[in-house]
Hints:
- Helix 1 packs across helix 2, helix 4 (77-89) packs antiparallel against helix 7 (161-181) and helix 8 (183-210) runs antiparallel to helix 9 (219-254).
- The protein is mostly helical and 255 residues long.
- It has nine helices and five strands.
- The protein folds into two domains: 8-108 and 151-181, P-loop containing nucleotide triphosphate hydrolases (Rossmann fold, 3-Layer(aba) Sandwich), CATH 3.40.50.300; 184-254, Helix Hairpins, CATH 1.10.287.
- A three-stranded antiparallel β-sheet has the order 3-4-5, with no helix packed on it. It has a two-stranded parallel sheet with strand order 1-2.
- It is globular, with a radius of gyration of 23 Å.
- The chain has helices spanning 8-16, 20-30, 47-60, 77-89, 101-107, 127-130, 161-181, 183-210, 219-254; strands spanning 65-69, 93-97, 111-115, 118-122, 142-145.
Amino acid sequence: MLVESRSPFEELSATMGDLGMRNSRTILGSFGFSGEAADRKIGDLSGGERTRLALAKTMVHPVNLLVLDEPTNHLDLPSCDLLEDALQAYPGTVILVTHDRHLIRNVAEILVEVRDGKVTVYDEVDERLLMPGENTIPAKLSTSLTGKAKKSAKKTDTRSSSGRKQEKRGQAEERNEHHQNTKSLRIELRKVEKDWEKAEAKVVALHAKLADPAVYDDGAQVALLAKQVDSAKDLAAKLSARWEELASKLERFNN
């Protein structure tokens, strides 16, 4: 809950208590509130800025579980990447509800898909499920759950608690380093993906207009729509090719 009469600096300082005055501006800067932006009234912030501030407040709390519902809604591309950085660095467990394939690709380790009243658990994030238009993954990667949730069998781990924590910390550091090294590539991939989806949506919308019999009373309008369809298809094809190229580069980094 954000107090609209406060500034981001006042809000975060109140959350952090005694440490707030000294560290709030540093933390706010990492979430995009540098300089005067930290002193604006929360009531004047955009939806994306409020989301970033709420995330900053969440991150300074000593909790080991975050539940986030569509956190990239209302965020611009730099803010989305900032969110990814924060989640990559977060040491606890994150339950993420999202349709953002790019966020899933870069943050998730286990995927739970809910579709048509059926829950499917994937032990890994397979790229084929994340591609626009793809709905299936080989059955060997998934476990299906129907009706009430079934209790999953727990894997036996004979390692010591300290050993598991150390391994998890090392894995988190490796993921964070990899995340930073691929930052510019991921930003471009996200932008191309969004543009591709918009181009495909435009093709569908134009086809819907051409399906209206009334439009054929105006030959010039039909010709214009047909030209727009061709242009939209060309753009979608180019964006698709660029997406494939960027996704392949990112996959090579991951391997």
